[in-house]
Amino acid sequence: MDHLSRRNLLAAAPAAAGMGLLTPAALAAPAIVKGARPDLNDPAARARMRARVIGSCARETVFIFYRLHIYGYSGDGNLIPFFTMNHLNVSEWTPKPGNQYESRTYEAGVYCRFNTDEPLDEWVNPITGEKRKVWQFYGGPFSVAIGPDGIVTKGADLNPVVLPMEELGDMVIVPTSSSAAFPNAATPDAYPHLSAGKTIFWESHATYGARAQDAFNEKLTNAPAFCTFQNMATWHPWLGMGGRAETTSGRTWGRAYGAKISSLDEIPAAARKSLESHTPDIFKWKEWTGFRNDMGDYLKTVPKG
């Protein structure tokens, strides 16, 4: 995420069908795991299930690896392939009082030639034709707290809205959506070649899918899950999209797919090599001493004007 602040954001789920957790049909379905299903009218059971699928309801570290394909949209025509990011999410989960499960999350991503594991140090913007020095991604740590009916984030401008969970076939689907608009630190006056306007707009829609027998399993703290998200965001300054017709009409659009992995050894070998060579600090997340703000840190490296 490009811009981070210290605001606290809360999203509450609809108070229907198990407080928006499952549809009535799912609540009435036969038990899938051995023994009775948890009572999802119980706030504690709802919170455990939500945390079990998204992360963990125990004290443990959860890794998610994503392939994130990023495109440019100029405001007209089709999407233009930009690059692929090998993205690693590291979240340290801790149970908290009041049926809350909190993660401390660290992120890093390496920009690669589109649909490959070949890291980019320089990249030619296909819209402008300009060769740009690539700014690799780091973010965090920020906190995410999952409760019975919502998600609270600290350190992020994205405002997650919990959508109703559904049981489809033998899967439980956990969707969320986020939308944000905030002042752009790269103002047009200070950074005319880099700025995409006075305001940053950011949309992010994530979905987690787990087998129902795992999602409902009260003996399981961390359900294996398939994870996806889609982002649509104002141009990042490092792309050099300031002062153009596409500056305000266009955005980047990204589609990520990945999964929880049981250890860092499960990262595909070529992707891990790219992360080790270009974002090595993600493997030393316990040593991070400060907050890493992707856009803010980038702007410290470039002159104004």
UniProtKB/TrEMBL annotation:
Keywords tagged on the record: Signal
Coiled-coil ranges per UniProt: none
This protein's record includes keyword Cytoplasm: no
InterPro entries, A to Z: DUF1838, TAT_signal
Signal sequence, renumbered to the chain: 1-28
One Pfam family this sequence matches: DUF1838
Protein name (database record): DUF1838 domain-containing protein
